[in-house]
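A reminder from the course coordinator: this example appears on the midterm review sheet, so study it carefully.

Given structure:
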């Protein structure tokens, strides 16, 4: 009887190992498989409706510029044209914030994109506070094409 229990336990461990290896292999494949993404990055309707709670004024724009310089400059560049020093290393060119198409987005859409990220852009929801993300948006708005 003890021998049957030992064999049963051994079979359970073997089965668990197979499941673990299979699960790990699947996770590995997904982690390193390039999943095509649509060229247009659209925020969900719930995000589009969100308004910026931080007033766009000299202080918030200045604070946003500091955060932008630290976290966004390398890819998006000094003037937000997507030409930062690391932009050439990326598979997908960073967004040009000066373009009308970008500037037409709602603050909520931009906030969602900064928060969530999409390859090659990282998610910044753990990197910078909500207030700082809104301040960055206030700063980015100043980069739009002047008429």
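Designed residues:
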């Amino acid at each position: 009887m003890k021998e049957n229990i030992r064999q049963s336990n051994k079979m359970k461990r073997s089965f668990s190992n197979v499941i673990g290896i299979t699960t790990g292999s699947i996770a590995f494949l997904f982690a390193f498989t390039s999943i095509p993404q649509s060229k247009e990055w659209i925020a969900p309707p719930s995000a589009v409706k969100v308004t910026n709670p931080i007033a766009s004024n000299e202080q918030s724009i200045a604070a946003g510029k500091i955060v932008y310089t630290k976290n966004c400059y390398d890819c998006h560049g000094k003037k937000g044209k997507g030409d930062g020093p690391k932009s050439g290393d990326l598979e997908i060119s960073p967004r040009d914030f000066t373009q009308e198409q970008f500037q037409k987005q709602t603050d909520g859409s931009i906030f969602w994109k900064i928060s969530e990220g999409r390859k090659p852009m990282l998610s910044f929801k753990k990197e910078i506070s909500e207030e700082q993300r809104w301040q960055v948006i206030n700063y980015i708005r100043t980069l739009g094409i002047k008429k």
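The radius of gyration is 23 Å. Residues 22 and 28 are 10 Å apart (CA to CA).
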